[in-house]
Amino acid sequence: MVQKTISLTPETYKRLKSKKKQNESFSELVDRLLDLKKEPNDEEDFKSFAGVLAEDDEWDKIEKILEKARQIPRKSLDNLNLEKL
Fold this sequence. Notes:
Helix content: 40-55%
Strand content: under 5%
Number of helices: 5
Order of helices and strands: HHHHH
Shape: elongated
Radius of gyration: 22 Å
Distance between the termini: 58 Å
Number of strands: 0
């Protein structure tokens, strides 16, 4: 196995070490963390969101905001504050 040395600030090292599981090497940790970041168009990543709002009232809120936004003239949407909808 080829080994490479990298430099980390003490803060970054502490943050990385805090994510490390027991009996996990730093190489395994870095691989695991890199695998968490998938390509934006990855089909599996997209599928992971299926049904997330199915049993949540958040979707109802989103639908109400969208319905109100559809009733606003296009010119007004540029300065729209969604928090007030």
